[in-house]
Amino acid sequence: MKLDLEHGVVEMAHGGGGRAMAKLIETIFLGNFDNPLLAQRNDQACFTMQAGRVAMTTDSYVIQPLFFPGGDIGSLAVHGTVNDLAMAGAKPLYLSAGFILEEGLALRDLAQIARSMAAAAREAGVFIVTGDTKVVEKGKGDGVFINTAGIGVIPDGVAPSGERARPGDAILVSGTLGDHGVAVMSKRENLAFEVDILSDAQALNGLVAAMVAEVPDIHVLRDPTRGGLAATLNEIARQAKVGMELDERAIPIKGAVRAACEFLGLDPLNVANEGKLVAICAGDQAPHLLAVMRAHPKGADSAIIGRVIQDADCFVTLKTAFGGTRMVDWLTGEQLPRIC
Amino acid sequence: MKLDLEHGVVEMAHGGGGRAMAKLIETIFLGNFDNPLLAQRNDQACFTMQAGRVAMTTDSYVIQPLFFPGGDIGSLAVHGTVNDLAMAGAKPLYLSAGFILEEGLALRDLAQIARSMAAAAREAGVFIVTGDTKVVEKGKGDGVFINTAGIGVIPDGVAPSGERARPGDAILVSGTLGDHGVAVMSKRENLAFEVDILSDAQALNGLVAAMVAEVPDIHVLRDPTRGGLAATLNEIARQAKVGMELDERAIPIKGAVRAACEFLGLDPLNVANEGKLVAICAGDQAPHLLAVMRAHPKGADSAIIGRVIQDADCFVTLKTAFGGTRMVDWLTGEQLPRIC
């Protein structure tokens, strides 16, 4: 009963809790995610933690297509959850991984996704310590959905949180916006642009560690994923009961992404990112924080893009390149469904 | 943009990261799961933990039908993950919840599922502290899939693990077997039996706390879910490199479940349970452990069902009621797909 990784597909039996599932897990997951905690082979992982503050998060990934320029659902599922932990200022430690497989999924694709997850976890310095595999009938899923949950430890004195944005604070981003959404969209729609656009999906925990080491009192950290920068800033403004003023000329967007957005009728501020963060800190600490971010390989294109102001209406506005002002609105839904 | 909880359905916009998603989360999830950590409304929950051993686990739930006699996918998603933590001897603390909703799901059903989750969490004494909501197009999911991950703390001196079963150990179960699988199957197939069969889905952390308080050195704890008792014991036998001998007459099975299994052509030992546990402990501690289990409301039908023996082949065998012996085999797949 060896798995045929070249031509085999996922069958209902692979989710049944019997021999077939054990074989799938051993062949595809345990080998790739290899670590002593996962090797315990119980229905849970057990480890020792020191006293202190802990962050816990979860995300399910339903992106289509499963493989896109610059990543796949496997690497994304690691990067996304690592980043949600990092946005608490935490050092991510352990991830869980839950797979919902659709009957008929090529085992070759599943193995590739598992390899990507393993590589992303290694690069981010986290371990996938426990997991679960379910199979649903063909037509009741979409290839593979992955849930990752994670925990991490938060250094003393670090407590970024959405409601901590204060008038006078500076708003920074760690790099160019819109790359992930446009890369996925171009693949989905089979569009070819002159310049290849790759997803920015990457783990930001190293960048965040460098940031909080120098500026522990960062008020807010958040990654502008679904809904893009616009949704993220509107959420924070509402949580903190403040307004925000952005400077369009300061917002880094790649020329190719800007052109693709114009072509597709998208506003890059609404497009999802998977390897960028927004940081909000006291105005007088912003220049130092910016320097720290720019000095890190994952923050080379960082910029101060605006400031927090007092505003009972919690509006986020943008000074345009032409000297006007417009609202940065929060869309009802998402221009690009299933982007993560 | 108020949600119509009576006639509304899930739309793609509810997964878009924008206003519609915020409204869905506020209306359906935050209200039901209400707790201070979730109310932080960041992409992660932050809390303080004491030094010590921690258990972490995850499970995705894809059960069909979503509502079944004795529970629904919401209560199951809490019970299942609480139980996986309890099987490490841990006191469960915090859960995450990731939802993958299919476009078109009735909001009324989603709200009912959220209420069930909240009630199950309250009863088990755990908090749902962080979550995620995704929406997939109609035909790309199946109503709702839920992932829950959880963490808990393990008391000193407690370390149950599959490989710790030793020849001479006793094998106990905490109650009747097969109730969950038969209840779900009867609903799915629209079967009516003379006696209503309810799922046994329930949280076992209270029972486990009572057990480890009296017998800290329980060697193995595991809940016989997918694949039933047969798969669970075969897994443990393989992990611990031992054999097992069961006594059929000692295994508690309700008459109605036994009759339904005969009718459906199922072996109750292969049928999933969601509110029972297997415990393996030193033979001389078994009578005391049994008494503790029987004294707890969730363990009233507990029984010693067999013993661990030396066997290089790791076979699990059953002395039948008629005096014969048969193998308790581990199925390749599952007789009943999507049972959890």
In CATH terms, the superfamily of the largest domain in chain A is: PurM-like C-terminal domain
Shape category of chain A: globular
Oligomer: homodimer
- How many individual domains of chain A? 2
Order of helices and strands of chain A: HEEEEHEHEEEHHEHEHEHEEE
Q: Share of helix among residues of chain A?
A: 25-40%
> Approximately how much beta-strand content do the residues of chain A carry?
15-25%
Secondary-structure-derived class of chain A: alpha+beta
Poorly predicted segments of chain A: none
Q: Please count the helical segments of chain A.
A: 8
Overall description:
Two copies of one chain form a homodimer. The first copy, chain A, is an alpha+beta fold. Chain A folds into two domains: 12-154, 2-Layer Sandwich (60s Ribosomal Protein L30, Chain: A), CATH 3.30.1330; 162-327, PurM-like C-terminal domain (Phosphoribosyl-aminoimidazole Synthetase, Chain A, domain 2, Alpha-Beta Complex), CATH 3.90.650.10. Chain A is 29% helix and 24% strand. Chain A has helices at residues 19-33, 73-86, 107-124, 179-188, 205-214, 228-240, 255-264, 286-295; strands at residues 45-49, 52-61, 67-68, 71-72, 91-102, 127-136, 144-154, 170-173, 220-222, 243-247, 278-281, 303-309, 316-319, 325-327. In chain A, the strands form three sheets. In chain A, strands 9-11-8-12-10-13-14 form a seven-stranded mixed sheet. Chain A has a four-stranded mixed sheet with strand order 2-7-5-6. In chain A, strands 3-4 form a two-stranded antiparallel ribbon. In chain A, α1 (19-33) runs parallel beside α3 (107-124) and α2 runs parallel beside α3. Chain A is globular and about 70 Å long.
